[in-house]
Amino acid sequence: MHTPPRIVVVGGGYAGVMAARAALERRAHVTLVDADGRHGFLPRLATVAAGVGPIGDADAPLADLLPGVTLVTELVEGIDHRARALATADGRGIEWDALVLAAGAQASAPPVPGLTDHAWTLRNPDDAKRLRELVPTAESLVIVGAGSTGTQLAGEAAAAHPHLRVHLLEMADRILPSLPVGMADRARDVLRDRRVRIRTGVSLERVGPEGADLDDGTTVPGLVVWTGGYASNGNALLPDAPTTDGRLVVDRCARVSGHDRVLAAGDIAAHRGPGGRVLPQTAQVAVRAGRLAGANAARIAEGVRPRAGRLRHIGWVLPLGDGQAVAQVGPVPLTDPLTGRLAPLLHDAIDVRHLLTVGGLPAAVRHHQDFVSLP
Ligand SMILES: Cc1cc2nc3c(=O)[nH]c(=O)nc-3n(C[C@H](O)[C@H](O)[C@H](O)COP(=O)(O)OP(=O)(O)OC[C@H]3O[C@@H](n4cnc5c(N)ncnc54)[C@H](O)[C@@H]3O)c2cc1C
Q1: Are strands 85-88 and 93-95 parallel, antiparallel or unpaired?
Q2: Which residue CA neighbors atom 37 of ligand 1 most closely?
Q3: 372 alpha carbon to ligand 1 midpoint, in Å?
Q4: Is 264 touching ligand 1 by the criterion CB < 6 Å?
Q5: 216 plus 162 within the same structural domain
Q6: 3-state class of 115 per DSSP?
Q7: Does 338 fall in a domain?
Q8: Domain count, the chain
Q9: CA of 195 to the centre of ligand 1 (A)
């Protein structure tokens, strides 16, 4: 009798659920191990943290999304690639014929005094739910790091709470330093209209219970949220594998360098796109990479050659609250006030499409009723 190959996926985020689904489609036996058993909708976290929309937009039980997959809710602590087994925090060993690492990234903090004790972060659904309780009663919100997470949070919070003084602080000389300059300029204009106080070229010296001290000698009082950095979970799981900026080096089949039966997808991996560029850590890349890794894990376990994938990053959509957003799709900027109105719809369409692919229509309707009724 044919025994289905055993595929184990670590992490139930965008890459992990797609990997599990792709392996299942090849009739593998799939086990997905996730630390909290929930799929986080990270692109929705700033909205949830600002108190806009239902709290259920933050995450959904993996069991709802992945029928047919064996789910294990445990933290993976180590991988023995020679024994082809992984160890979970409860001491369980789970064996595999091929493994997909999709454990994402986490907030990382530089050694600034008081930062880990007094600043909040916005990286996972629990962070968003905690901020949702704190933001409405705060007088001032001090967001440190004006990348896409910090800029989106500033826009959403200022739109939802007009009484709130929102500060957005950035070390570089402009907000959204890694996004196209036109998008950054338009986002800055939207935020200024909402009276967000933007300061660039400043860095954090210390964080205390009252607020943030900056290197120019000023103190900005308020609830401090650190959105300045993320670190991939690659090295923690596979310390001997080569990495680029902490992300596991993978080939075009999503195999981890030096590991024939270990694949990686999403934020944990350094995927390359056209021209060999390392792709940004986004949900759209994670979804495609997850699908590639899951299918290839099943092929490898079956003894079939894995296929090279062509991954790319199509563009950016950054919602700023109150129906406004900035976006760039390929070379086309959607940044003026009129086309900017299309951008939030695009952002929601991406999530709805993801839910439809992973969990079908019932999952999309159950978890994002507000998306389905968008104007
Ligand atoms: C606030 C915010 C807003 C964003 N907005 C956008 C956006 O608008 N558009 C976009 O394309 N991208 C956006 N991103 C980026 C995008 O969300 C990530 O690129 C994407 O989530 C990566 O998917 P992933 O599956 O690699 O990791 P994740 O989605 O982070 O999932 C990783 C999973 O692994 C689990 N895990 C971690 N360690 C372990 C372990 N040791 N054992 C077991 N389980 C473990 C976690 O619990 C989690 O469920 C945003 C990110 C953030 C934080």
Answers
A1: antiparallel
A2: 103
A3: 23
A4: no
A5: yes
A6: helix
A7: no
A8: 2
A9: 30
pLDDT by residue, tens only, the chain of 375 residues: 578 999 999 999 999 999 999 999 999 999 999 999 999 999 889 999 999 988 988 999 999 899 999 999 999 988 988 889 898 888 888 999 999 999 999 988 899 999 999 999 999 999 999 999 999 999 999 999 999 999 999 999 999 999 999 999 999 999 999 888 988 999 999 999 999 999 999 999 999 999 999 999 999 999 999 999 889 888 889 998 999 999 999 999 999 999 999 999 999 999 999 899 999 999 889 999 999 999 999 999 999 999 999 998 888 888 899 888 888 877 676 666 655 566 666 666 666 666 666 666 556 555 554 433 322
| Containing structural domain, residue 288 | 6-35+74-106+230-304
The pair of three-digit structure tokens given for residue 177, joined into one six-digit string: 């330093």
What is the 86 CA–ligand 1 centroid distance (Å)?
21
Residue with CA nearest ligand 1 atom 35:
11
- The DSSP string of 228-287 is S-EEESHHHH-TTS-EETTEEEB-TT-BBTT-TTEEE-GGGEE-B-GGGPBPP--HHHHH
Same domain, 223 and 237: no
Q: Which domain CATH number covers 149?
A: 3.50.50.60
The reported pTM is 0.91
**Residue from 42, 57, 232 whose mutation best tests the ligand 1 pocket (most atoms within 8 A of CB):** 42
Handedness of CA 328, 333, 337, 343 (dihedral sign): negative
Q: Which atom of ligand 1 is nearest to the CA of 269?
A: 26
Nearest atom in ligand 1 to 106's CA: 30
Residues 127 and 183 in one domain: yes
